[in-house]
Amino acid sequence: MSWITNFLTSSIGRKLIMSLTGLFLIQFLLVHLIGNLQLLVDDGGEKFNLYAQFMTTNPVIKATSFLLYGGILLHIVQGLLIWKQNSGSRNTRYAVSKNPNVSFSSKYMGWLGTIILVFLILHLWQFWFKMKFGTVAPIDYNEGTGPVKDLYTLVSVAFKNPLYVIAYVIGMIVIGLHLKHGFQSSFQTLGLNHKKYTPLIKGLGLIYSILVPLGFAIIPIYFYLFR
Ligand code: HEM
Q1: Whose CA is nearest to atom 18 of ligand 1?
Q2: Ligand 1 site: residues with CB under 6 angstroms?
């Protein structure tokens, strides 16, 4: 079994874990965004609250959530280890800083990731923690589900605070920059390097890293201005 430990702690093993957990988190973000866009439906939160109730009580989705928590933790720990390893090696640092082709995103992945971690702690405390362990008022839509947690009001009250709106918009810009490099880099680590497909993956990554953060950023701005 020690070859597994050796592989997972080797630099290629660490990059592989970063790539696989990164791709998993990329698909989570898209699903999370599609679900959250229901907050923009003008129905007093019914669609969103019923959706959130389903997502947090369905046994299959609940089981996937544990994969998600594990994926986030692994991504953070491995990311910090790779960052430490790179900044400890003078050669790597020299190579990175002297190479004019290294983009801003790629150069500052560690810092961008750290800002995202701060955002995530704020975000989970604000919504997830309050939903799981706090007292979110129940609401009954007479849809046969019984009373469900009114997360819509929790979100709507939070985004009346301009400081949260600014924090979310900054958070989304940082996530966009992190994704810009992370998206194509995950495919590269998996060995998907091809004359024809690499530019396609880069293009897709760029579109994803603009549209997904933009979709998220619209939500707090919309609530602040129109709700
Ligand atoms: C405007 C933007 C966002 C809104 C309104 C929002 C809203 C919410 C809400 C209401 C919850 C608790 C209910 C649930 O679990 O579905 C939640 C959970 C969560 N959010 Fe967000 N979110 C936003 C952006 C993000 C972003 C950008 C990330 C990642 C960087 C993220 C990561 C998470 C995670 C990991 C959970 C816990 C999921 C689980 O327990 O399965 N969210 N979010």
Answers
A1: 128
A2: 32, 36, 52, 55-56, 65, 68, 116, 120, 123, 127-128, 131, 151, 155, 168, 175, 216, 219-220
According to the model, what pLDDT value does residue 34 have?
98
Considering its fold, how many domains does the chain have in total? 1
Give the DSSP H or E segment for 148: strand 148-149
221 vs 227: CA distance, rounded Å? 10
Mutate to test the pocket of ligand 1, among 117, 123, 168 (most ligand atoms within 8 A of CB): 123
- Ligand 1 atom closest to the CA of 151, numbered from 1: 10
Average pLDDT on 46-56 reads 97
pTM for the model stands at 0.94
The CATH number assigned to the domain holding 74 equals: 1.20.1300.10
**Whole domain around residue 21: which residue ranges?**
2-226
- Of 40, 34, 30, 35, whose CA–CA distance to 218 is shortest? 40
Q: Which residues contact 175 (CB under 8 A, 6 or more apart)?
A: 29, 116, 119, 212, 213, 216
